Amino acid sequence: MSQDLVIHLSGPDAFDWSVVERSSGQRVASGTAQFDALPEALPVEGVDRTLLLLPAERIFATRLELPARSEREARQAAPFMIEDELAARLDQTRIVTGSKDEDGKRWVFAAETAWIDGVMEALGTSLVRPVHILPDAMAASEADAALTLADRSGDVLFWFAPQVRDTAQSMGGAVDAGFFNHVAHALVAGAKGGEVVVSPALGLAGPGFKSITFDPLDLRASRWTNERLGLLPALGGDGWRSSLNWGELLRPIRRGAIMAAALAITLAGLMLAEGFYYRFQAERFDTASVAVFRNVVPEMTRRVIPAEAERLLRERIGGGWRRGVLFPATHSGPGGTDRWKRARPHRPHPVRPVAWRAAGVRALYGFCRFRCSQRRGGADGYQSAGRGRSRRR
Asked: What is the Cα–Cα distance from 208 to 100, expressed in whole angstroms?
C-alpha cells in the first residue's frame, strides 16, 4: 500500500495535512496544524513520500532551455536568465533547476532563501523522505489547458501552460479574489486563444472557457507520478530528495567520527610542524658545514654547497666516518703512523640524513676550534690539518 503525506501551507503560520492512498485516491487521515504547535506524530505508517504544496505567489516557477551541458552549468546559468523577473535580490533568493526533460528544457524554481529554510526547519520532524516541493497552483493545473483558474479559500490560483508563456516568465501565481476582476482580462489574454479551465465559483463562461469542479489539492497532487515529480527542482535541498536520512543514520557514530577527525587533524598538524622543524634544522646544519669548511680551507673563495663542502673536508682532513661521528685522521700513534687509516682505509660515503650530519658537524667543528686555539697559543699541537704531517715538535 503506497501512501502520500500531502502538506499544504494554508496560511503564514498554519498548514493542512492529509494522508492519501495513491491507488484509490482517497484520504486516509487529514487535519490542520500550527507551526508553533506541531502534532507529536502524524499517521505516516505506510507513507513513502511527501508532497509539500507551497503558495504559488511565494515561488517563481518557469520552464527554460538553458545553454548548459551539465547540471552544474545549468545552476550557474539559471540566475542570469530570470534575474529580471525576480522581485527579490539574487543574494537573498534560492534558485534551483530540475532535470532536463525530453524537450531539452528544465524547470527553474526560485524562492526567498530565509522563508524556504524556515518552512523546512519547522516541518522537518513531520516530513517523510523523499520530499517533493511544488507550487499549489501547479498541482491544481489541468494538463491540456492553456490557462487554469482555480479557487483557493479567498484567492484565485492561475497557471499557464509552458507553450503559451514567453521565456523566463512565471508560469503561475495567486491573486486576491476581490482583485481578480481587474486582472481577469489580462490573464485570459495570456492564454493566447487556448482553452481556459475555470472553477464555477469564478463565474467565467463563454467560448474558450471550460468550467470544472476541482478536486481538493491534496488529491490532485497525489496523482503525480514519481517520474513527473523527479523533473522538478529540489527547492528544499537535495538532501530532502533522498529516501535515506543520513543525518539520523550517522547520529550514533557522529561523536566518535568528530573525535577521530579532530585527532587526524591534530596528527597532521604535528607532522607538518615536525617537517618544518627538520627543514629549519637541515638549513642550520648546512650553514654550519659551509662555515666549518671556510674555517678549515680559507683559500677557497668560490661558492660551495653543503654536500660538496663535506666531501672536500673529508678529502682535506683525510678522516673516516664511523657510526655517524667524524674521526680525524691526524691522530697518530708511535712513529707518526696513522693507526686509524692503517686499520680502516678511508672510503667515500654518501651524504647521510640530518641526524648523521649534525653529529659529524659538531665533531668536526670542535676539532677545528681546538686546532685553531693551539695554533694561536703557540703551544705544542698538531700540524695543520691539510699538510699530512702529525708529528709533535
From this structure: 32
Inter-residue contact 64 to 105 (CB < 8 Å) = yes
- Tell me what pLDDT residue 161 has: 94
Q: Cα(328)–Cα(98) distance, rounded to whole angstroms?
A: 79
Strands 60-64, 47-54: pairing kind: unpaired
pLDDT tens digits, 71-99: 899 999 999 999 999 988 999 999 999 99
Is the pLDDT at 14 greater than 50? The verdict is yes
With H, G, I as helix, E, B as strand and everything else as coil, classify residue 170: coil
Name residues whose C-beta falls within 8 Å of residue 138's C-beta, 6 or more positions apart in sequence: 56, 61, 159, 171, 172
Q: Mind listing the pLDDT tens digit for each residue in 205-220?
A: 899 999 999 999 999 9
Q: Is the pTM of this model over 0.70?
A: no
Given a cut of 50, whether residue 320 has pLDDT beyond it is: no
Q: Where are the alpha helices (DSSP H) in the chain?
A: 71-82, 113-123, 136-140, 177-189, 217-222, 226-230, 246-249, 251-296, 306-317, 339-343, 354-377
Which residue type does 221 have? Answer: A
CB 156 within 8 A of CB 177: yes
Domains defined along the chain, listed by start: 3-249 (3.30.420.380), 255-377 (no CATH)
Alpha-carbon torsion 239, 243, 248, 249, what sign?
negative
CA distance 254 to 308: 55
Phi, psi of 361 (to 5 degrees): -65, -40
Are the beta carbons of 315 and 297 closer than 8 angstroms? no
Residue 309 C-alpha from the chain's centroid: 51
| Amino acid 376: pLDDT | 53
Q: Are 187 and 165 in contact (CB under 8 A)?
A: no
Asked if residue 322 lies in contact with residue 294, where contact means CB atoms within 8 angstroms, the answer is no
Query: Do the Cβ atoms of 67 and 81 come closer than 8 Å?
Result: no
CB 210 within 8 A of CB 196: yes
